Amino acid sequence: MADECEVSRVVTTFLLNTCRLRPWASIRDVQAAMICGVVASKHSWEDAELFIPLITGSVAEFYIEPMLPHVGDVDVMYYCNIYLAIPRGHTPPELLPAEFHNYVYVAEIIDSQFPGYVYLSLRYLLTQRVDVGKYRYIEYDESLYLPIRAYLERCTGVHGPAVVNNPISQLELSVDTVRCTRCLSWPPQAVNWPTRYRNYGWPDSATLDLVVTSGCDVVHAAHRQCKQHELMITYQWRLSFSRAEIVLINSWMPVQQIAYHILRVYAKTERLTESVDNSEPAIMSNYHIKTLMLWACELKPKSWWTEKLNLVRICAELLNTLSVWLSDTRCPHYFVSNWNLLDISLSDATVASKLISIDKTYLSTWLINNYIAQCAQLCASHITLLFDDVSTDMKKLQHVVSDIVHWRLNTSLFDMWRALEFVEFYIQQKVSVYYSLTSRSCAYWMNDLSKIDKRLSVYFSAVALLNVARKISKNGFSDELVDILTIFLGHNFIQSCSCLSRCKTELNVSELVEILQKSAVEHLTTYRHLQVQDFRHVVTIETTDYEALYAYKQGNYQRCLQLSTQNVHALYYARSASSIPIYPELIQLLDDDIVSLIAMMLMVNRKCRYNINYTCITQLTLSLYLMTQCQLKLHHSVTSLVQTLDYIKISHSRHPRERTLDQLTLKLIKHKAYVTTL
């Protein structure tokens, strides 16, 4: 291997240039937002009780986007709005955030013999005075410890405090949902954290204030030593500082987030976070890595991270520190001073010895063989071939690393585009197949999606409007649908829409359905224009495809033909074009022929609905379909149909075989056009 300093410098340059900031929507962000909407729309056993969700874990903490996957699942924490925890001895609050109910059960947090693990003792009932908005409390004569098992025993897939939901499709991550009890106060168990002396000014005062005012949560979990004790496992809880960790980790410099990512990759690859035979808990978890990083950010000066920046040196030294912790069986919790996160009964001298021996030479080689090599596999084939034996040739290593970085930078915009297309598919799939819209879930989704990418709130609005139109056509009108429409169209529009009152009395829904479909198409057209602004350099996007589809639906074949013909001419020679997910929301705009085709495809293989190749159609294919249908309905000459047939034949040969819906649609119109020309 070449000089270790030079190699580690090349590795550092690679990591800094490929771990870009996350500027676009990803499936995991949207999946987390959608899960939050589902959680928020569910009521518990009493209709008044609502669940308030929060995205936690890696999805909320990381703002970098490395080349390799760095988020294993989606974590969502949620609390019920009729329960509140307060520190022992504190007076119940007079004012609560708006999401809390007008009556709230208040439990005191009682320490157990294990630091960080507590009991909740029900002590007060808060009731809100309508006239002043403040709460008054009634104290219970006897305290009652709140159990945790009643909820978890109704769930499957329980892992610690989390309920695990496995992914439905390959696009998704597994989801861990954790029910908790909200505590609006900073807990006395961590009283020293805000005021302890910090040599290097991290976290700064503003971040400290934000963390402290966010309070904490209490989650359903018992200490490992209590797992065999029926009474303790029923009533024991654990303090959670997830809100604080999100704030702190998002305040890190990019180099600190990259180091955190590399440490997690190393621990996972070397199976440090797994037990030997899965019969015992692992010695470490990602939470130990997070704790290591939080302490390092506080105890190391900024210069340690930034001067002569070398990520290999940083990560090697941090792994050495972790080795010392393992040797001493001591991992101090970042917030609670007397909480040791390492269990002495699970100590492993072998792991500690391995970590203490790590230096820049070893880690540089490890990252080349286990990290950069995987990144090379994602690139063009010539880069993958060049990567062989780079460890023995410094110039070759520099050349390959430069090629990977160049490829990464050049594909950045296209990656953004592909992510957005997957998100379109995902949103339609969830709204159509899995999630029933409610006014509350729609409000959450609109808010969260607009934070991720403003384009997505426009797209979701269109899908939701079409979803409501489909439900009205099938089942009639309801007050819940009025509430949903108010979110998207506004209260004034709903008030002025005269067809609403007639829908309820005369069941004359066709006028309202038409209004909703037209509004949805307007939203989709706006969405197309927003796409063009950012992605016109990497993909050909025609903005009138939905307009053409709606014109066909309305029987305006001349207008549809005009738009579709223009789109075919623009898309015919495009290297890459946009696709349209076809779920029931869009199917209502299609005619019987293509609907029957999709239905037959689903009858043959119901799994088609989960595969993007079966449920998406390109703009070119749809434009050719509309163009052909309009020519047939308008009785165009054989000459024009022959030209269209040529377009269809060539397009059919260009589409990959796995694009099933495109292939079947092109075969259908090819047959119809051919029969007409005979």
Helix content: 40-55%
Structural classification = alpha+beta
Shape: flat
Q: Please outline the major beta sheet.
A: 11 strands, mixed
- The proportion of strand residues reads 5-15%
Roughly how many Å is the radius of gyration?
29 Å
Mean pLDDT: 87
Count of helical segments?
30
Number of strands: 15
The N- to C-terminal Cα distance equals 71 Å
Low-confidence stretches: 149-159
Description:
This protein has about 675 residues and is α+β, with helices and mostly antiparallel strands. Among the domains are: about 70-250, no CATH class; about 410-525, no CATH class; about 540-678, no CATH class. The chain is about 55% helix and about 15% strand. It contains 30 helices and 15 strands. The strands form three sheets. Strands 2, 4, 5, 6, 7, 8, 9, 10, 11, 12 and 13 form an eleven-stranded mixed beta sheet that branches. A two-stranded antiparallel sheet has the order 1-3. Strand 9 (about 160) and strand 10 (about 160-165) form a beta hairpin. Helix 1 (about 5-20) crosses helix 13, helix 2 packs antiparallel against helix 17 (about 440-450) and helix 23 packs parallel to helix 28. The chain is flat. It starts with a helix and ends with a helix. About 40% of the residues are buried. Mean pLDDT is about 85; it is low at about 150-160.
Write the layout of secondary structure elements.
Blueprint: H1 4-18, E1 20-21, H2 27-41, E2 51-56, H3 57-61, E3 64-65, E4 73-80, E5 83-87, E6 103-111, E7 117-128, E8 135-145, H4 149-152, E9 158-159, E10 162-165, E11 174-183, H5 205-213, E12 216-220, H6 230-235, E13 237-240, H7 242-250, H8 254-269, H9 286-299, H10 302-306, H11 311-328, H12 349-356, H13 360-377, H14 381-386, H15 394-410, H16 412-434, H17 439-452, H18 454-475, H19 479-489, H20 491-496, H21 499-506, H22 510-535, H23 545-553, H24 557-571, E14 579-581, H25 584-587, H26 592-604, H27 612-615, E15 616-618, H28 619-633, H29 638-654, H30 660-677
Parallel strand pairs: 4-11, 5-6
Antiparallel strand pairs: 1-3, 2-4, 6-7, 7-8, 7-13, 9-10, 10-11, 11-12, 12-13, 14-15
